[in-house]
Amino acid sequence: MFDIDAVRKDFPILSREVNGKPLVYLDSGASAQKPQVVLDTIQRAYAEDYSNVHRGLHTLSTISTENYEAVRGKIADFLGAASEASIVMNTGTTEGINTVAYGWAMPRMEAGDEIVLSVMEHHANIVPWHFLRERMGVKLVWVEPEADGSLPAEKVLEAVTDRTRLIAVTHMSNVLGTVVDVKAITSGAHAKGVPVLVDGSQGAVHMKVDVADIGCDFYAITGHKLYGPSGSGAIYIRPERMAEMRPFMGGGDMIREVHRDEITYNDAPMKFEAGTPGIVAQIGLGAALDWMTGVGMDSIAAHEVSLRDYARERLFGLNWLNVQGDAPGKGAIFSFTLEGAAHAHDISTVLDKKGVAVRAGHHCAGPLMDHLGVTATCRASFAVYNTRSEVDTLVDALELCHELFA
Question: According to its UniProt record, which protein family does this protein belong to (predicted)?
Fold first, then answer.
């Protein structure tokens, strides 16, 4: 039984005030707040158990290594991966996608090869591919969403040609909340011999993910959106693809031996994890995944669907509010502007005075902003700890904005 009051009590920051008002945190799409168990885990890891991992035989190193490596298995279970050897731990989705760009795509592509992207992608799933365009002559092929923000799988697959070498697509838009049928895309792409990378930064937060069922070749997640620390994350890599990759970064841990005239690499996934990792950040991510699993992904999803439906009803009832995208089955993410001259930054500032935290700007989604014909929007992104009363607070604050800027 989902208990929203118990969930909220797990997040100490939710009890604070902002500008004399109770905090209404609606910016979880950028970075989620952390439950007490994550904060306690981080404190304990530093205060009681801290040491470097993989390199020592003393007690603290052994404890740290065991706690750190246990997270790899937790991530594998969370994503439905068959083996923890398919999990490369890193600082988040950006590093994960760059690892694929440099370690898999760059050695396998040449001028004229194509990468299919949706216009909804976050910059983390755009810029690494632009590097290949600038430096190698790879062509980026863009697929636009429908008017309601949906992205039909068949539309993505229609963009595939005999020069397509990769499809890179989001599981859930961080601006529109659109949920993409990545399983159908993967099935159709594999039938054409094309691998698929999925940006799971938003998707893994709001719905149960099973990479074995999806069948994708790469699935990237970022810990700070999963109620874990910043600087934590991972990427699932299908074993066949991992065998095709070369290391992206060189340093300690990713090697077996180093000599003057040769080196030998460690086994995967370690060979893609150079240097001292974010030990405590990853341990904190493990605690966050344990917390999410304890609440239940199905319960989290059901709660957020209820919030989404209520927020949609309230927000679409404001005839002076322009809400971007309304795809069926979307997530609890709403981007909007006000009619008139009010800039998103002005709206955000007024909302902040009422204790309501939203994101304002282009949300690292420049091509989508261009497609929508706007320079910036406000975004309210809901999470497991939000309530219907907070939706009402948001609407009241927006009505104030309308009075001020109309």
Answer: Belongs to the class-V pyridoxal-phosphate-dependent aminotransferase family. Csd subfamily.
What are the tokens at 270? 């370690």
Task: Of 253, 276, 285, give the one whose Cα is nearest residue 266.
Answer: 253
Strands (E), 123-280: 139-143, 164-170, 196-199, 218-222, 233-237, 255-258, 263-265
For 99-149, how does the pLDDT look when each residue is reduced to its tens digit (9 = 90+)? Answer: 999 999 999 999 999 999 999 999 999 999 999 999 999 999 999 999 999
In a domain, 36, yes or no: no
- The domain boundary, picked from 254, 277, 294, lies at 294
Pairing of the two strands 321-324 and 17-18: unpaired
Based on the fold, state whether residues 200 and 68 are members of the same structural domain.
Answer: yes
Residues marked as catalytic: 364
Residue 339 pLDDT grade (very low, low, confident, very high; cuts 50, 70, 90): confident
C-alpha–C-alpha distance, residues 42 and 40, integer Å: 5
Q: Could you give the CA distance from residue 108 to residue 165 in angstroms, rounded to a whole number?
A: 9
pTM greater than 0.85 (yes/no) = yes
Amino acid at 95: E
The token pair at 373 is 């014909």
| CATH at 144 | 3.40.640.10
Vertex 213 angle, CA 211 and 214, to 5°: 60
| Cα radius of gyration (the chain) | 22
Given a cut of 80, is residue 406 above it in pLDDT?
no
